[in-house]
Amino acid sequence: MDLQLLAALVLGITTIVVVVLRTRLDAFVALLIASLVTGFVAGTPAADVLESITTGFGDTLGSIGIVIGLGVAVGKILEVSGAADAIARAFVRLLGRDREPWAMAGTGALVSVPVFCDSGYVIMNPLARSIARRKRAGYVTLALALGCGMTLTHHLVPPTPGPLGVAGILGADLGALVLWGLAFTLVLLPVVVLYARWMGPRLESEISEEVRTAVYGGGAGGTGRVATAVPRTGGGVAKNAGPEPEADAELDEDEHEDEHEHDVPDPAAALGTPPPGAKPHRMPVGLAVLPLLLPLLLIVANTVATAIDQNAQNALGDEDYKPSTTAEILAFIGSPVVALLLGVVLAVYVLLPRWTTRTQVTGWLSEAAASAGLIILITGAGGALGQVLRDSGVGDELAEAISSWNLPGVLVPFLIASMVRVAQGSGTVAMITAASVTAPLLSGLDVSPLLGALACCAGSMVLSYFNDSYFWVVTRFTGLDGTGALRGWSGITSAVWLGSLPLLLIASAFL
User: Fold this and answer.
1) Which pLDDT tens digit goes with each residue over 17-73?
2) 3-class DSSP state of 404
3) Nearest to 64 by CA among 351, 322, 386
């Protein structure tokens, strides 16, 4: 490979890592600076570099920016209405006793599709604490299962912003990415539960005194029927404090649940107090899931109907394909913009009670827009970097170099995403950076846009640790620190990353 172009690529990626880790600037600015560095080192004229940046930024956001904003808005209404909590409780009831880790992992996976991991975990954690309090054990297991269930769909399933951005940069079909992301999630959920059940009991004694007391109450809780609430000092581990009071041992699960129900925050507290004469807000799970399920079904229906129609016309992959009337209608209502727009309307008018004021609703939607803003900018900047790599010739040179290696092409975006994630912590930045770098390479690697998108998303799940904000959310709420936090949270995220590798290699045989 031409050394000048290789230097351009290496310095561009290094710029992202250094700016994010060592300066006060964020990933959006880092990606733009990296675009400039890459273009200049590659020898591209300054005017052409700027044109590539603006073209790549505009083209990417033109296809995906609206969708990210709408998806975050749906998530915000699910959060404040109590719908996310209703979905979680439905999972617990459905799966029954002794399957609570499965319920927590499944809940996390579903809730995290429209809700950011950090806020979703904060919303759902009281339910995990309530279950652990009722069982008098197993909080770490439930907390790890909940957190990593959220990690799966946060990284793999649109309309989560990261996968949406990757789809836009690589040109992957969104409905197909939803289906494959859900398939990966279902296969990886057992990995989440098995790791949580294996490691959770080993870390139960390492929960901080403050969190232990909050979960189990004073003098109760731990593993089995043994209390472990003796305070820790320094980095030590709590010791067993003797048998549980007999009265507590005789309480059945329903009594425990009733006893501690007042400790669980009201999931719809943001709605405020109902006006005089108004009915208290209740959230049936059928309504709670509707604004999330309908857009996903419409997007998938669009993909499936188009594929069936193309097959019927013998026009698979034909650029001159003209859809039938039915396929054209489904393509319209199943486009991500229309589908998620319907989701927002349903969320506002179905999930929220009638006495909710317009000011409240617009305030929540404004908060959602604010939280989506940086993700949208990062996605656009990732598209700008990808365009610079294409126009400068770095992408073509790298594709030729990598194609000579004895390495499956799908591993290239996977490993790039993994390296960037370990270096700077953010899964969203890692997958968007990997998509930007590999977008010009896919044809040379013989990798489809869909497979490349899956590889970018899966690779970004690796080793959540100190430089990842979500690491601190999970470990602080779980009461773990030091090696306990690494064994628990860093371990489980690396386990699903490793589990996704054979899935990618299998998927490459079909895609």
Assistant:
1) 788 778 888 778 888 998 899 899 988 899 999 998 998 888 878 767 787 788 778
2) coil
3) 386
- Say which residues have a Cβ less than 8 Å from residue 182's Cβ, sequence separation at least 6: 156, 157
- Taking the CA atoms of residue 33, residue 37, residue 38 and residue 41 in that order, the dihedral angle to the nearest 10 degrees is 170
Report how far Cα 101 is from the mean position of its chain's Cα atoms.
19
With a CB cutoff of 8 Å and minimum separation 6, the contacts of 6 are 397, 398, 401
Range scoring the smallest mean pLDDT among 126-135, 308-317, 442-451, 488-497: 308-317
How far apart CA 492 and CA 143 sit, in angstroms, is 11
Q: What is the CA radius of gyration of the chain?
A: 24
DSSP codes joined into one string, 330-362: HHHHTSHHHHHHHHHHHIIIIIS-TT--HHHHH
SS3 assignment, position 237: coil
Q: Write down the number of H helices and E strands in the chain.
A: 24, 0
Do residues 382 and 60 make contact, with C-beta atoms less than 8 angstroms apart?
yes
Phi-psi region of 221 (alpha: psi -120 to 50; beta: other; left: phi over 0): left
- Determine if the peptide bond prior to 159 is cis (ω within 30°): yes
Q: Which residue has the tokens 């300054």?
A: 46
CA 70/CA 471 separation, integer angstroms: 26
Least confident residue range of 277-286, 313-322, 354-363: 313-322
**Looking only at Cα atoms, what is the longest distance across the chain?**
79
Helix (H, G, I), strand (E, B) or coil at 226: strand
Determine the average pLDDT of the residues in 205-218. Answer: 82
Q: What's the CA gap between 231 and 220, in Å, rounded?
A: 12
What is the C-alpha to C-alpha distance for residues 71 and 289, in angstroms, rounded to an integer?
14
Query: What tokens does 93 get?
Result: 């009831």
User: Quick check: 79 and 119 in contact, CB under 8 A?
Assistant: yes
CA distances from residue 466 to 145, 271, 422 in whole angstroms, order as listed: 19, 35, 10
What are the phi and psi torsion angles at 226 (to 5°)?
A: -120, 135
**145: exposed, middle or buried (C-beta count within 10 Å: 0-12, 13-18, 19+)?**
buried
Q: Is residue 87 over pLDDT 60?
A: yes
Q: Under a CB-based contact definition with an 8 Å cutoff, are residues 419 and 463 in contact?
A: no
Top pLDDT among 174 and 144 is at 144
Rounded distance, CA 367 to CA 125, Å? 22
Cα 488 from Cα 203, distance rounded (Å) = 8
The pLDDT confidence band at residue 494, using thresholds 50, 70 and 90, is: very high
Q: Are 384 and 437 in contact (CB under 8 A)?
A: no
Q: What share of the chain is helix, strand, coil (3-state, %, to 5)?
A: 75, 0, 25
Mean pLDDT (whole number) for 337-345: 88
CA atoms within 13 A of residue 19's CA, in its CB half-sphere = 19
The neighbouring-strand residues paired with 243 are 226
